[in-house]
Structures are given as C-alpha cells and as structure tokens.
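## retry 2 of 3
previous attempt timed out at serialization; input unchanged, resubmitting
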Amino acid sequence: MTLINRMRVGMALMALTPAAVLTQQPIVYPAKGQTADQQQKDEGECYTWSKKNTGIDPAALAAAPPPAPSGPGGERVRGAARGAVGGAIIGEIASDDAGKGAGIGAVAGTMAGGRQARQNQAAQQQQAQNQKQQQINTYYRAFGACMEGRGYTIK
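## retry succeeded, writing output
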C-alpha cells in the first residue's frame, strides 16, 4: 500500500468513524534504519497480509454505511395498550369514567413507548459501533505484528 493510499484509509476512518477508532491506529517507526521507500513497501505488504489473515479490510469497513435503524418494534403500540388499560382502571376508580382515563393512559403510554424505541435504537447503534471498533482493533493488531516482524517499532 502506498503512503498515499494509507493516508486515504486513515482519512476515510477519520471521516466515517468516531475518534475512539482513530486512537487505535498504530504509529510505525523505522527502528532499524529502514528508508521511507522500504517502509512504504513494508506497510503495503503488511496491509495485504493483515487484510488476508483477519478478513478485515479497513477501507471497506470505514466506507460501510452505519446500520439502518430497524423497523418499528411495536414499543409505542404496546405502551399505548398498557397505558390505556392502566388509565381505564384509574379512571374508573377516580371518576367513574374509564374511557377518559383510558385515553389519557394511552397517550402517556405512547410517549413512554416512543422513549423505549429510541433507547432500543441507540443501543443497536452502539452495539454496531462496538463491533466495528473490535474489527478495526483486530486488523491493527495484525498490521502491528507484521510491521514488528519487519523490524519496526509500533506504538
């Protein structure tokens, strides 16, 4: 991989992923006096080796779109139903008007269900981001091992 291509991968990762991913990218130092040309050649070969051995292409991973939110999970409907039942019971006890209580409970339940839906979506997105982070870390560990094997210091 040429230095330009390596920079493009790094820039793609910066543009498409949070800063946590960027902190994991190894820094390569030519510990045995390797020239810039030799380092570039070694980095290209280690990129290919790491990609082959981990099955992870960091450029493709960075370019992958974030996961689409899953369809409605029914949280609002379930919340409305629970709220309506609870509201009907309270309305009947408090004012002998189960219908009014059910309506109020349904609205409150719908709002609670919407909150639950947003929390579920955020949890799914966090899980997908964590998985992407683990894949990047695996690739970088392989890349670092390859470069260390060629006499570079990796930090």
